[in-house]
Amino acid sequence: MPADKNMKILVVDDFSTMRRIIKNLLRELGYNNVVEADDGNTALPVLKRGGIDFLITDWNMPGMTGYELLCEVRKDENLKDLPILMVTAEAKRDQIVQAAEAGVNGYVVKPFTAQTLRTKIDKIFERIDAGGA
Amino acid sequence: MVEAAMGEDFSSLAEYRKAAERLIEHVDAGDAEAAQGIIDDLTHLRETEIFRELGSLTRDLHEAIKTFQLDDRLADITSSEIPDARERLNYVITMTEQAAHRTLNVIEDSMPLAQELASESSRLLQRWQAFRRRELSANEFRQLSREVDGFLEKVRDNGQLVHDKLGEALMAQDYQDLTGQIIRKVIALVEEVEGNLVHLIRISGQRIVEERIPDSDKAQQDKDSMMRGVGPSIPGSDAADVVGSQDDVDDLLSSLGF
């Protein structure tokens, strides 16, 4: 079953241009319920307020990084199962392993294509469905 | 000239005064050559001081740089980070250029697609209005009907093409994030270098400040400096009070009674 098109997605990136790009791509894919934050510090309160179904985050941001945000989310009892896709220019092998170990659901390296984003999102929700989540 | 310079001791203001008074005497006496001699000596003395100052500044800077070279971080900056930063900035140029071309390609490709629809629709609109005014024959209407068919297909195809092109233009904007991250790193490096430079200037500046504040000690310091040695003369600049050969040395000594 594909991902629910009405799910609420939080896009976190310090560059507003990248947030716009991702937001537009998501709209193309049929996801219109998108909110934004510019780093982990602004994203976390939004997440804690509840109602976010899917998190797309950059890694390298001033304030709280995407990796720290990922760890915070996994620590939080109410958020620990939130699907997270990392979209970042950080491309070192060790970093990707680190993110995976911290519990990221998908990892897209910038620059990316619309097709890549679609595939990763679909894959994340296919796995979640298969896992019975 | 040499004798005059050696005979005069300009190390104090009193000596300056003495030279000035002698200058006036020579001027009053109408002895232009002698007056010129005094002026040359004064000018020369001033130049020597400037060079000594420069020499000492250079030495301080050299010392400071040597100290910095022992600093691993600075060595790292000069040997790898600056060339790396240069490469990064070149990469930024390449990326922004590519993004601009990608976007311009989309514009160039899309404009004729939109133009085609605009001109075809305005032609068909005229035919359609003619039909509404009942000005078309049955044959003409059949022709118009075929053309409308073709036009709708064109709208569908061009619409899809422009949509895809705009998606391409959208993705091309990712350069701002990527180059922005690179530039931030270079800014951090520049800030670090700036900090080091300020430190360097502070180190060499201290020497100057320390030297300048006790102005009364300056003559003594100059003397000390002379005692330590001021280094080889700079050809063409301080030639007037520097001997040119051993003969000059002998001549000088004999004129002083040796």
Architecture overview:
The complex is a heterodimer of chains A (133) and B (258). In chain A, helix 2 packs parallel to helix 3. Chain A has 133 residues and is of the alpha/beta class. In chain A, 44% of the residues lie in helices and 16% in strands. Chain A has helices spanning 16-28, 40-49, 66-75, 93-101, 114-130; strands at residues 9-12, 34-37, 54-57, 84-88, 106-109. With 258 residues, chain B is mostly helical. Helix content of chain B is 83%, strand content 0%. Chain B is built from 8 helices and no strands. Chain B has helices at residues 2-7, 13-28, 32-69, 72-132, 138-172, 175-212, 218-228, 246-255. The chains are: A alpha/beta (133), B mainly alpha (258). The A-B interface holds A 13, 15, 17-18, 20-21, 24-25, 28, 60, 89, 110-114 and B 167, 170-171, 173-174, 176-178, 180-181.
Structural topology:
The complex is a heterodimer of chains A (133) and B (258).
Chain A: E1 9-12, H1 16-28, E2 34-37, H2 40-49, E3 54-57, H3 66-75, E4 84-88, H4 93-101, E5 106-109, H5 114-130
Parallel strand pairs in A: 1-2, 1-3, 3-4, 4-5
Chain B: H1 2-7, H2 13-28, H3 32-69, H4 72-132, H5 138-172, H6 175-212, H7 218-228, H8 246-255
Helix pairs in contact in B: 2-3, 3-6, 4-5, 4-6
Q: What is shown here, in short?
A:
The complex is a heterodimer of chains A (about 130) and B (about 260). With about 130 residues, chain A is α/β, with parallel strands linked by helices. Chain A is about 45% helix and about 15% strand.
As a percent range, the share of helical residues of chain A equals 40-55%
Q: Greatest chain-chain interface?
A: A-B, 16 and 10 residues
* Helix and strand run of chain A: EHEHEHEHEH
Query: For the report, how would you describe the main beta sheet of chain B?
Result: none
Which percent range describes the beta-strand content of chain B? under 5%
Shape of chain A: globular
Count the helices of chain A. How many?
A: 5
Tally the beta strands of chain B. 0
